[in-house]
Design goal:
Length: 263
Amino acid sequence: MDILGYIAALIIGLTLGLMGGGGSILTVPVLVYLIGLNPVIATAYSLFIVGASSLVGVVSYYRQNLVSIKTAITFGLPSVVMVYLTRKFIIPAIPENVFSIADFTMTKHVFLMVIFAILMVVASLGMIREKREIKAGNAEELAYGKILLEGTVVGLLTGLVGAGGGFLIVPALVLFSGLPMKKAVGTSLIIISAKSLIGFTGDISNYEIDWQFLLIFTGLSVVGILLGTRLAKYVPGEKLKKSFGWFVLVMGIFIFIKELLLH
């Protein structure tokens, strides 16, 4: 299973490179179902993998002046603080048995995977729908209240499930910051990288980290991103995105069934 997991790491990176996002949402299912990690550790590792991968991805955007540092700081600060607090205090505080109804017990394991499945379904619908142009407001005119709220919510979700949340961040940056789409994507990568890596530091003191495995898995994802970025010039990303969206939807439904009905 480890071999399949490492191949999946390469595919995750390849998907990110080809489509500019979406692949990281498979990281936790791969770590849980192929590698066999506990969901809490899997979400922690996913933060590092997603953060490091996004850091590599942001370089080309920054070189093209497609990153707004001002917006990244405004959105990123509440997100970084929230994801760190979630990993440091909220996740350890969740009881092993969240609640029980009749013969069914919602364990911490199932609770986290169900939240993740919900996020997968929401993300997949965004990929499947026909792409519509999001109309921006005045160029880089920040709606501070909305950005702070959105940043806090995204930070909480990232802390809980270990996904980057780019599908939530990019539309928010376009709508609330007036950024053009490409600049919103570049800016989102900085935010995702910062909040994921800083959030991961909240786990270091709580759990024993297998650095050898984590660095190998991350390295394969980064190789995949670099390959995907080159292939993106020849492969239509939007068509791939819709197909990948259906795959993510099926995976989300599978997790629901496995964790709630077959657990």
